[in-house]
Amino acid sequence: MTGVYGKDKVRLLKVHKDTKVHRVDDMTIRCLLSGSSFTTSYTEASNKAVVATDSVKNTCYILAKNSKVVDTLELFSAEIANHFLNTYSWVEGAHVTIIRHRWARMVIDGKPHNHSFWRDGDETRQVDINVKRGPNGRRTIELKSAIKDLLVLKTTGSSFEDFVRDEYTTLPEVKDRILSTSVDANWEFNLAPVQTENLLSTLGQIPFNNIFDSVRDVTCKTFAEDESASVQATLYKMAATSIANWKWIERVSYALPNKHFFPVDLSYFRGTKNLQEHADVYQPLADPSGLITATIARSPGTSARL
Ligand SMILES: O=c1[nH]c(=O)c2[nH]c(=O)[nH]c2[nH]1
């Protein structure tokens, strides 16, 4: 059998008080452990090897108290995972997921406030790390960063034409439509096994926060500026740009629901024109949405392994 266990939905707010301009990291952590020693906890009701999930939760808080890297989710998740491998010789793998919730600084009387924040959207930043014991005391690391639920809309600069027309088709060709999606994107890093004691300094060579900001910017800029022929074509441009921009990124995936806004046919009312180029009153459709997904990988031989 195989099993993993640990704590899920550990809520943690770290306040950085090093200056009077406070910063916050508000997160939800999942931390799961694996290893063959845990088998007997399932098969023989023996808890001898079990690190209590309560202790897993406590560890997240203690590490957050002392960590220097809480504000870089990729490093903090690596620190948590590596801690369990360093502390318990029978833990073979640690899998940590961190979701960071948004708090934007309040602007009061035109000035950024030192210690007050507001929730400026449901979008989250996430990381998913899998750290295992590798050869010669090294750690093998699978690391993925993500943006989730970034809701965007543009009112022109999007068409959808020249698709299959047959007896099932009712959708008109459209030169100008609304485009809206809730962006889920993730990008995977290419990491060689690292020495456990150098884990954070080695990973620290990658500018994870800059990469996150850049992928988010590229996503928004491409969405806004592309004369979109389809969600598919715009998605590809987003992914290809970030792969070109950052040598450490091995693969980028997007899942883009096509949130439909259809012009309302108002012709029944005094012949009111509201279709095609006359459209300015739309009905947002809650469901269904299209769903366009793709994973774009770096061309072989162009990768930069850390
Ligand atoms: O960008 C789009 N891609 C599609 O595949 C599709 N299908 C559809 O009905 N509308 C759209 N829009």
UniProtKB/TrEMBL annotation:
Catalyzes the oxidation of uric acid to 5-hydroxyisourate, which is further processed to form (S)-allantoin. Its main location: other. It holds the Pfam family Uricase. The keyword Oxidoreductase applies. Keywords: Oxidoreductase, Peroxisome, Purine metabolism. Belongs to the uricase family. This is Uricase. Urate binds at T53, D54, F160, R177, V231, Q232, N258. One of its GO terms (molecular function) is urate oxidase activity. It is an enzyme of class 1 (oxidoreductase). One of its GO terms (cellular component) is peroxisome. Its EC number is 1.7.3.3. Signal peptide: none annotated.
